[in-house]
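Retro notes - structure team

What went well: the batch runner handled both jobs without manual restarts.
What didn't: labels got mixed up in the shared folder, which is why I'm recording both outputs here explicitly, each with its sequence directly above its tokens.

Job 1
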Amino acid sequence: MCGILAVLGCTDDSQAKRFIFSQFGYRLRHRGPDWSGIYQHEDNYLAHERLAIVDPDSGDQPLFNEDKTIVVTVNGEIYNHEELRKDLKNHKFRTGSDCDVISHLYEEHGENFVDMLDGVFSFVLLDTKHNSFMVARDAIGVTSLYIGWGLDGSVWISSEMKGLHEDCEHFEVFPPGHLYSSKSGRFKQWYNPPWYNESVPSTPYEPLAVRRAFEDAVTKRLMSDVPFGVLLSGGLDSSLVVSITARHLAGTKAAKRWGSQLHSFCVGLEGSPDVKAGKEVADYLGTVHHEFHFTVQDGIDAIEDVIYHVETYDVTTIRASTPMFLMSRKIKSLGVKMVLSGEGSDEIFGGYLYFHKAPNKQEFHQETCRKIKALHKYDCLRANKATSAFGLEVRIPFLDKEFINTVMSLDPESKMIKPEEGRIEKWVLRRAFDDEERPYLPKHILYRQKEQFSDGVGYSWIDGLKAHAAENVNDKMMSNAAHIFPHNTPLTKEAYYYRMIFERFFPQNSARLTVPGGATVACSTAKAVEWDANWSNNMDPSGRAAIGVHLSDYDGNSKVAVSSPSPKTVEDTPMMMGQGVVIQT
């Protein structure tokens, strides 16, 4: 992911100079170490820190239309740029960059072109002819983006909060699926799919339709002119991404340039569930596998850097960001600039373990809608910023627009977890890739129970964090927490510890308002906590807080996994399936 920074309508010359200084003063240099570009037109400044993935030779930014009256700085990838170029035959492109289509689409369609882009992006477009600008962010918020306002009336845009938090009177998260136009001075929602209003859909489940849609989502993300790899935890989601990538890599342009041998990467404590499962999947698929081990102390030592880069005090995000942050540094040192990852599946399929308690299909579906809408505050934030800290780009096939539309149009009855019918969480995804004739994965991996990333790297990781926090936050500090932190008051010593660090880096009230709060168990929304009265006594984002569901839950209950025969092919599969279904004994 690149870094973008823009100040628009800046009448304060000293602020403009600070902007230029911040651009070349490394606020966002970590995101794009390959090139720094800056453009000024009157009182507007656009800057870009480039991580070159597509067309590294000529795609430096800002980008322009033919007569340079339209200027664009963009972070992201446009996967359908070749198709869009065909529809822009009368235009001349200056580069081979996938993002070069944006200025020309604006010339043709004005501000009404954003939904034509198939990809992830944040961009600022300056129209010098009409002295106007627009800003847009991708549908789900895979790319990070913030907007702020200066006292002089200027509008600030930055990929990260640290790019503007010292210069704006107020700033906030730029909402995903929206654009901001200087012509109206308001936000406009450009992404409004049928599932967004949370009404219950009714499309019957077709396993092969889900399979094809996800394979398309993965293969379009193999667009790269530089070496890339895949993150592999050994869980269902990342393992499917690796399996599909391995199947389709040989025919890509990237393979012709860099070879068809796929590299996979895993991180965890020595002997952790993810490390063991990741190696098994890598051996099965024949990838060149890289295992990175860290100790609890390694993670604790990185916490301050993680909070600075990821820009949050949310407990579960920090827990999961730290191993990813450490792994990203190792991956970049090997010369890899882009990785595919498995985030997003649990939100669209209802894969978190607390979904076992969903009372009906309406509640199940509405919770998935809430989770997708909040992804930019949690997993997307983590994946984007933990990797970008070292100039590494992450791509997330599960959050492909078309794939989300396919899955979210399904009758949620088919997604519901029903142990009595042999249906484990994410059953519809598992079934779609259960192919006896040409297996994508070993059966026990295909039906491995969900592990949240912060759990899968090793259960002692979270336990170690809690112990470290307890050494730094005493009971007296906790008794005054509501007075010190009246907004999103930390309820645990671990949360208090992270909050202290965050406030040191980002002391502004606007900064603390960018971080979500509220009750949660096993990563649920506050609404879903109501599904089980017992959860209110064990409010923790770890999957082990799903008492009565997780094999190693905090309650210490004994559980076994039951399996039933699997059908030979997807086409012959009846409306039930089961391996590794968790039941309590």
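Job 2
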Amino acid sequence: MAVKGNAADNRTRSSVSIFIIISMCCFFYILGAWQKSGFGKGDSIAIEITKQTDCTILPNLSFETHHSRSDIGDDIGAEVRTFEPCHERYRDYTPCQDQNRAMLFPRENMNYRERHCPPEEEKLYCLIPSPEGYVAPFPWPKSRDFVPYANVPYKSLTVEKAVQNWVQYEGNVFRFPGGGTQFPQGADTYIDQLASVIPIANGTVRTALDTGCGVASWGAYLLKRNVLAMSFAPRDSHEAQVQFALERGVPAIIGVLGTIKLPYPSRSFDMAHCSRCLIPWGANDGMYMMEVDRVLRPGGYWVLSGPPINWKNNYKAWQRTEEDLEDEQKKIEEIAELLCWEKVSEKSEIAIWRKRINSDSCAVRQDEPRVRTCESSYADDVWYKKMEACIVPFPEVDNPEEVAGGELKTFPDRLNDVPPRIASGSVPGFSVESYQDDNRLWKKHVKAYKRLNKYIDTGRYRNIMDMNAGLGSFSAAIESPKLWVMNVVPTIADKSTLGVIYERGLIGIYHDWCEGFSTYPRTYDLIHANAVFSLYNKKCKMEDILLEMDRILRPEGAVIFRDQVDILMKVKRMVTGMRWNTKMVDHEDGPLLQEKVLVAVKQYWAGGHTNETVEV
């Protein structure tokens, strides 16, 4: 009986292997068949791929089974679960920033605008629809200035911010002139003013944080100066501001300075910015400025433009009293002094401070009784952790000229240079050698990905997410002005590597994939998921993660899964019921490895293209 059982198992495994071995060239047909661009007009991509691809040719893959996990065969006969579309009212659903749920939480310190995810019984198990008429965004850099109206059909900002030059409605598109509340003449002119003080042009400043970003025009115009800005704003009465930013191809998340710490490690950003962002910097004993100090690199810059700067000339226009504005600026100046920030400029309505490079250059703070030092774990333990009015100490230095935490090269040299956190041994389990090995490995992986999908670095995919970013080597390998990558370090990962990613001049965020990501639907063009489902095995349901991926992925967007073959078989089966087309291919080193690659393309469909919807 045992012999018969083994033979049956072998037949099952063989059938699985045959299924896996389907040619990756046929994937090109799937990829091309679902490409649409412009305003629903077909392009030549599908035709070109069909001409170039001969799906009668099989790749050099083995027909033999190369894994021994008996649970794969058990899944083959399972019924495919079909996920129906959600009701159209959920087309802009953000599970952890739901407007109705937010109203149940206190308004004090913006708590109600923070993340509040649904309990298990309120989760949606349906597909978020696109709005009727949804089309692929314009390619970068045109997308910076134009967004199809059908994709974000909300005109309120064109009225509310009309005189501030945020956004204008013109026919069937929104046009973004590059203005902002504090820079109605355009972001370029404003950035030129900052660059006269801050070394933006030479690559010293690479990563920036924009608090209360609006439609992220500041970040959009920094991109041509090779600066990556992480912009955030709450989901509030300024409808769809972060959604507009991402449709423009600009990095942004839904977020707020409230009661919990920002989801970034200490010493992440070379520059932080607030342009009339309405954050009460002097409140709560300076807690918000202390949080900016935590994430600002030694030697980094903080820019504050708008109220209360230059209040004497503007208090009437701002419709506030002189006393109120004077008191606000006084508090900000006092907190900046406690933080040992040096004010390097104040012109018109723009003030710029610079953080000291180490504690030796801030001897006055050591004897200041008002300074409360944070606990040692506070600096990088941030996920859902309460923000406190305390100051994160500098890392130790050996001399007054040394930059605390290590000096960085200018960008792009810092991209592949050994990051200080690695060189100093601050990340357990990683050495200089293993870091370099990781870089080489991901260059090889990305080269293989480009053979699968030649559009990866052509501009077809602008907004890219790496769900399990590690040291950021995938992002480094595809780095290009045509794209940007949101590097996500899962909160359950064994090693906290996000600080390394920022030291490389890349951007990212902490996140738990058992919950919804802080973004709108349809905001990423390409998602990379390396070992995500191995990491989250038995942590939460596979469909929770896959449905969240579907929510944030654009129609016709692509996904690259890399994981163990038994896990990918289950993923493949589940996404078949989510209107995704898939192909499995072997590891680039050959079929003997259990690690495989699953490539997928989300089909195009919109709310009006189906008669079946799930009422929730």
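One thing worth noting from job 2: Confidence is low (pLDDT under 50) at residues 1-77, 609-613.
We'll revisit the folder naming next retro.
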